[in-house]
Amino acid sequence: MYYHRLGNIPPKRHIQFRQPDGSLYREELVTSEGFSGIYSTLYHKHPPTRIKKIGEPVKYGPKKIESYNLRHTHLNTSRLQTTGKDYLTARKVLLSNNDCSISICSPSERKMNFFYKNAEGDEVLFVHEGGGSLISPLGKLEFHQGDYIVIPRTIIYKLEFNEGPLRLLIVEAASPVETVKRYRNQLGQLLEHSPYCERDIRPPLDLFADDNKGDFLVQIKKQGYLHQYTYEHSPLDLIGWDGFLWPYAFSIHDFEPITGRIHQPPPVHQTFQGHNFVICSFVPRLFDYHPLAIPAPYNHSNIDSDEVLYYAEGNFMSRKGIERGSFTLHPGGLPHGPHPGTAEKSIGAKETHELAVMIDTFRPLHLTEDALEFVDDNYPMSWTENRGDFNEINAP
Ligand SMILES: [Fe+2]
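Above: the input record for the complex with fe (ii) ion. Below: its predicted structure, written as tokens.
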């Protein structure tokens, strides 16, 4: 991430900075990885420590399935309408391990009457359908279909969604979610070979500087509970901030694909990294152009990782069963590859219009109880049947 500032801040850190009535603004330093990671300095109208009430915590989190056979899994979530009422009840974790979890979220309510803070995980929201605004003390961040929204842990926020179809894919990470290390120089600037650069990363704009008092509920997620904290002032009371730690949006449509004469490996699609997992974007692109190229991917044994693909857009109707909104999980320990006939039929194809998000984890994922209703029992045998036509799924 890069340095950004918004609103009014004093000329130096940790010095007197006074409000119009002569009282001090309240400085809050938000640091990651102790004091070794990125950080931001926030200036509040009110002390961020001042609370009115602590309510009873509410149990919150997925129920893992411990005994699930080793098999390729297709979770078809294409037909779901809504997954719950508000943003938090609608977040359904389908796959998880100790490093990250993968959820689908389609709330029926378009506005939140509370704030939310994830105190233990960074979050990446992929906006498959819908748009709206992320409201946080650091400002307003508008998002659109196709955006990734990266929200560092401890940022208080709420979401306002536009009317219309709404579907979010959410990755929650136990570690910081970062741009890819090999894309950066030693000072953190994104390099020439990076598929995106700082211009593509959108910071929050328009501080609220809200001085309202009242009851402001912040639900704080930590260790399997939502802790109920009521503040006596609006959390949106910042007058200014600066630093490297802030929520941002990045559109998958701004990811510039890397192509080659022969099939390029999945790391060229990498978009973000976390500890023990990566997030990749498969976007519309030209196919391989060697005269003997086979655009369809080869069979692959991923011996160290579980591979999850979320199919967002493209012509995958010809792959029986896979639909817009499908997940596939190809676990480590089993080879996966193109369906029968696909490699031959891909020869000569010039381009793909697919849009897919891949999450590869280096430790096994567990299905959750919420995932079971979406399991396609026919998928493990789908390489044995003759499934026919080439389709645009080129992601591995
Ligand atoms: Fe693969």
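Notes for the reader.
The chain is about 0% helix and 35% strand.
Helices lie at 342-346.
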